[in-house]
Fold these 4 entries.
Entry 1:
Amino acid sequence: MKNLQNKIAENMLFVTEFAVLVFCVFLAAYLIEKRIDRRKGERERILSTGKVAMIGIFSAVSAVLMTIEVPVPFAPPFYKIDLSELPILIITFAYGPVAGVMTELVKILLKLVIKSTSTAFVGELANFMVGCALILPAGVVYLRKKTRSMAVVACAVGIVCMTVFGSLLNAVYLLPKFAALYGIPLETIIGMGTAINPGITSVETMALFAVAPLNLLKGGIVSLLTVLLYKRLSPILKARGRRG
């Protein structure tokens, strides 16, 4: 915990930027969900006591899954795949985008307590923002019409958004920010990609040949498992979500 506090103090500006981005994503999710609920004539609270309890449980499962990272052969070693978005996408389908974003945030906080950070919080921000790029669009689409076919459409939309947004975020912000925070030349980071794939010669090609395939793979696996598992879990989640 002391190590985590030291890292926060050392990177206070970036942590502040992180907090502002989290607030903006949460606000967007809240406003969108409220608007859809009004159109559908629903008056149920966005976050009941029962929902918050389930968010806590699924956040814990997701945080554990986040610590289990698997490298991929087409990307540098600092890019790894995990399935932490699986419980979050399930919660999002059950309770809506706000619950999904909250679960994503609690997952990151729990992971920091469990494992701290090895990337000056850049990796955690990337995981949060790219995860939200999957669950927020998917949650919004599914919230409009909750059918199995719409769940498939929602997942497809989420995968596309996650891939495009994740690639742009890495190229424009995350890779340069990581290099600046660690005092590493950006060319050195790109060189790690070139060693894996000679086609990677810039931040743009890093995003195209490493980040995009990674997000497509992760999004595809998470979405497939969600479609297979959600209908089995939804009766339990809905029943517990109504309590409180």
Entry 2:
Amino acid sequence: MTSRRNQQEAAAQVVEHMTTAVLLLDDQLRVCFINPAAQAMFAVSARQVTGGRLYPASPGARVLERSARHALEQGEAFTERELRVEVSVGRHITVDLAVMPLEHGRVLLELSHLDRRLRISREHSLITQNQATRHLLRGLAHEVKNPLGGLRGAAQLLDRALQDPELREYTRIIIGEADRLRALVNGLLGPSARPNRRQINVHEVLERVRQLIEAEAPEGVTIERDYDPSIPPLLAEFNQLIQATLNIVRNALQAVGDVGRITLRTRTQRQFTIADTVHKLVIRIDVEDTGPGIPAEMMDHIFFPMVTSRAEGTGLGLSIAQTLVSQHGGLIEYCSEPGKTVFTIWLPLEVEHGE
């Protein structure tokens, strides 16, 4: 009896750590078990759905329940290839679904995320692009340092000459931003330079970015927040993450124009792979906008420097953002369609990275 229990516990541990999504349903299609990969896929928690139906917590559950019911009625296993599933409102993925009826009227569902294979392939391409742009960015950093020092010095002189405290507040903002940019430039210089890291709350970064963007945004643009307050502190360089996120949010602001919505969203995800390394826990930061989307001809090149659809743009914002996130062991990805573009920053929580 003890041996059987040990085998069951070992099997449960294996399923818990699988990167494929696994669900166990009873004959009433109630959830008996859902592993972390399935929780992440459907954006639900085990506590939320165990003992109840996966639908309506996830709109795509009706497709799974139909397949589970068929397996129970026929008493045989089957596989559905390239099944399109709506895992949350408005978010679809493509999966291979394996369905297997078990004893006592239960049915096992295993979903292999096909989009994940495409994501890994694109991830390697992004990493290669990023390595190619670092040399350019380091050269650019050298060129920026001199005029930045002059800007700071002029702001200091102006601060001393002004008597009005309100006007001096503006010069201090200039000095503070110049110092932040100087720290950023120093972080781009030299392959062995390590950023000054500390434990930070990722929402402090997002709130700082939100304040800066709200000062620039037209009245018709709204900025919404959807934060997960349970995210633990992250070991990171505060100014670098501000700059990386600011570049992405500023792009979103330019995309929506005078009227639109930008959403800042945070979540965690377990067992996530970045550059062939499986991380136990990563932070996911989504920057979503309601703009027209990325032109199809630019989608494969947007992280290259000097690539931009705006005549006044430099095409450096996303390249710099990708470099800064990469220095933290993370990655920036995106998906885009008319009316909805989402840039996602992935940051591993458990390992300190540096260059």
Entry 3:
Amino acid sequence: MKIHLDQVTKSYGEHRALDGICLELEDARSLTLIGPSGGGKSTTLRLIAGLEHPNSGYISVNEQLVPREESALRNYRKSIGVVFQSYNLFPHLDAVTNIALPLEKVHDCSKSESIDRANELLKRFKLAAHGNKRPSELSGGQNQRVAIARSLAHDPDLILFDEPTSALDPEMSAEVLDVIEELIQQGKDCVIVTHQMGFAKRASDFVAFISKGKIAESGRCQEIFEQAKTPGLQQFLERELKY
């Protein structure tokens, strides 16, 4: 995975969420974005996903610029998968259909092929018995696993996770983090926004610390967690790893 951000800014009205961030990442399987709430992590992820446009600067993923023109942007989005903290499943559809429908409508798969792929993924994530259940009939951890299955269904080049466990209790969080770690170990490129420092330390190749709209420090996982250089990162890790 290669990701390059060059002087990227993003503002919402008078609020500057990102203030000229730069990042050069090569040959990493997993990038984790850490930092205080409101620092710009999720905004960075949404820009990489092509869900929003930067006000200035540019972003490239695997040596291709993230496009801004709508038709090219639709094609780019087909190459990635995104998992949100609130699942974003269709509440009126069962688990199988939540996975199969995007394959049929967006990725031009046949209905039968889409359903077969959905059932295959539900089995992989130990949800085979729950395929006919709607989100309201599933636990939070099960819903997030359905969301991960949906993001994987079209075999994307990259999967982006935006705080995938923030709405879950500790047991369900561990269940979802185990799935993400397994995906990384199986060779899937991932960018993850998380407050789970134990997971970030265990599963990341590369870590970027984002605070006050800037990437204050970045590097290989071991360097970040064991040899933090900036006072902001040192204080953040001391606080987050205290308990």
Entry 4:
Amino acid sequence: MPQILESILDAVGNTPLVRLHRVAAGIRTPVVAKVESLNPGGSVKDRIGLAMIEAAEQAGLLKSGGTIVEPTSGNTGHGLAIAAAIKGYRMVFVMPDKMSAEKIALLRAYGADVVVCPTAVPRESPESYYSVAERLAREIPGGYQPNQYFNPANPEAHYRTTGPEIWEQTEGQITHFVSGMGTGGTITGAGRYLKERKPSLQIVGADPQGSIYSAGDKFIPKIYKVEGIGEDFYPTTMDMSLVDRMEIVTDKECFQVARRVTREDGILVGGSAGAAVHAALKVGREIDDPDALVVVLIPDTGRNYLSKLYNDEWMRTNGFLEQFPQHAVGDVFRSATRDSMPRFIAVEAGDSVRSAIDTMQQYGISQLPVIEGEDGAQRLVGSIQERTLLDRVYRDPDLVASAVGAAMDPPFPTIQRLAEIDEAFDLLIGGAPAVVVMDGQQPTGMVTKLDLLEFVASHTVRRHRHPVQS
């Protein structure tokens, strides 16, 4: 029997779960992505576009020949535009001026009128994109504003589709659900469904720095560049009581993790996905449980951001790529590795503390990763560090005869060989004594603060060396 859909709207939903291997390398907790970018319009908002239109039709609020007016960061507009194009409605979308040119052009491609408003004004300002949308909906004959921020059909669509899909795809094994928080429809609708079936499930919201959700009573409006998440007011579509934990994510973290997901796991994602994955990786690392299952929702495709987060010049201009964007971590690793040293020096958890000390003395190093497993399947389980080991041996000299596993510290953070050097700077400046360089899931080397200093010094000398005058 031919498998033919009646319209593109029938292709919305049933998006896959995909294991994140490379960005989650070294994390024992499985982290999988619900890839909503594979919806026809490229985002999770496809799910609510038709739902809100049909709810308005049933309530008599939207009639044949009417005009849909919506304030949107772009993706909701796209979801509405698909449904409106098929149903024959006129469209007017109002967007803040921080949105990418691709998003504006995309909506116009469906025949929509797009009105752009300033971002740096309060919500109640007559110039804000919320106020302009409300005014246009009143003034345009037959105008109707679905208003995703206050429309119960928004979370209801996720309760009916997104939540059940995740539950069935994981066979109920999901333990943590991670999502960005914008209108709140996704995290509220899907989260409520999942919590009803497993009350112990933890819901984690990723919120950009400058948003009201994580700031609460201390909220001070701040402009951030990541699109589609965070708010400066509380929509009624957001049920904060469902959120067990919030992770605040900076613009830089959003964009750099998004680029990593694209380059390392091959899923082209937007900045809000970077925020959610950043939070999911942090949660997975803290849980450290192979029997847990973290599901992170990827809300949209990176095609809408080619002129921004995937544009090195835009990233550099905004301070998200800094001093050495042309270099990868692998360059530092190769530069730091001496001919007399193996590529990767580590100690087994079952080895003695004495053997670990001997290894550090042999190679003149002050820290070692602790591993378990055979070559090709090694797993990082801890670290031995000169400073903390000295304190422990001083207090208990017999410790030198014990297994390394009894004296080790937590594992060093990991970074992929092809990651940009600025990511290594962030980890080391943030307090990590060293980072383990990974090639996929296999550890291949170490980079320390001294390695980075030597690399920067050598490249700075080369950059400023003047040519000899003849």
